[in-house]
């Protein structure tokens, strides 16, 4: 779903058959500000700007997308007719709150692993129909998008591997049939499986639910034998543990918690 269609659907969900306030009042020129009631990282500007263009609302931003803000800061100023501002208020805030909350948590993860040169990846654990929006928010927070769907990387997880009789034969055939630019990633829960995944020339090996000690062993083997293969750590990695995983020398760390564990920050719109 592109941005315009997303916004139209969000507005239709909220407005329904029409804003009853507009039925009982006259529109006047009005302006409003959005205030931060907690600290955070701003995301959602791309979507709010698109909505403002569609609804003929003028917006002036005092914080740029991806920048940090503090409690009490004025984030943006809006002007237009009162009916339009009030009709769009909740959709504007919901998009900013959702995106900024994800970006804020993502930045906390990024700050912890950035010194190690490790990339932070998101996952496909997104809310239905919100994948583009939520992955956009992690990107604003400093993460790198993992695959957007089943069509941009061939990932063989434990569930897939159980259906494959001969991994060597499968890989040779897969290389002939998937797009030339597509990568193959194989999940491994043990050192032996990680070694096998590298031996069959996976582009990326996902080390799932390994401890940092176990992961170090895989990193050493990879660096010695297959330095061009990328290693990704995943599985129950939290703010408390992510730094210990980054210190192993793994190339990337993926976690769904960027999205499903993000607690909403607090923003408020006030009419002038």
Automatic annotation (TrEMBL):
Domain annotation Quinolinate phosphoribosyl transferase C-terminal: ranges: 102-270
GO molecular function annotation: nicotinate-nucleotide diphosphorylase (carboxylating) activity
Residue ranges occupied by any Quinolinate phosphoribosyl transferase N-terminal domain in the UniProt entry: 19-100
Key words, A-Z: Glycosyltransferase, Pyridine nucleotide biosynthesis, Transferase
Pathway(s) where this gene product acts: Cofactor biosynthesis; NAD(+) biosynthesis; nicotinate D-ribonucleotide from quinolinate: step 1/1
Domain of life: Bacteria
The keyword Lipoprotein is assigned to this record: no
UniProt cross-references to Pfam families, sorted A to Z: QRPTase_C, QRPTase_N
EC number(s) recorded for this UniProt protein: 2.4.2.19
The protein's role, per its UniProt record: Involved in the catabolism of quinolinic acid (QA).
Family to which the UniProt record says this protein belongs: Belongs to the NadC/ModD family.
Protein name: nicotinate-nucleotide diphosphorylase (carboxylating)
Record organism: Sulfurimonas diazotrophicus
């Amino acid at each position: 779903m592109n941005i315009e269609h997303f916004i139209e659907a969000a507005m239709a969900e909220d407005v329904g058959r029409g804003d009853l306030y507009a039925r009982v009042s006259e529109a006047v020129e009005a302006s409003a500000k959005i205030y931060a009631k907690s600290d955070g990282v701003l995301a959602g500007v791309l979507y709010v700007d698109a909505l403002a263009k569609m609804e003929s609302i003028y917006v002036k931003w005092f914080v740029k997308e991806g920048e940090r803000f503090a409690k009490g800061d004025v984030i943006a100023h809006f002007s237009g007719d009162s009916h339009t501002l009030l009709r769009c208020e909740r959709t504007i805030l919901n998009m900013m709150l959702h995106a900024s909350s994800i970006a804020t948590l993502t930045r906390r993860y990024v700050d912890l692993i950035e010194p190690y040169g490790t990339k932070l990846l998101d996952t496909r654990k997104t809310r239905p129909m919100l994948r583009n929006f939520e992955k956009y928010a992690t990107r604003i927070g400093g993460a790198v998008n993992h695959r957007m769907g089943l069509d941009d990387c061939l990932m063989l997880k434990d569930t897939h591997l159980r259906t494959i009789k001969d991994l060597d034969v499968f890989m040779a055939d897969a290389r002939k049939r998937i797009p030339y630019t597509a990568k193959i990633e194989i999940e491994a829960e043990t050192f032996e499986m990680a070694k096998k995944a590298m031996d069959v020339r996976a582009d990326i090996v996902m080390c799932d639910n390994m401890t940092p000690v176990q992961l170090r062993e895989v990193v050493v083997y990879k660096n010695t034998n297959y330095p061009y293969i990328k290693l990704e750590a995943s599985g129950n990695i939290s703010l408390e543990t992510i730094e210990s995983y980054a210190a192993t020398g793994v190339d990337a760390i993926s976690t769904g918690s960027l999205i499903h564990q993000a607690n909403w920050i607090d923003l408020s719109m006030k009419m002038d």
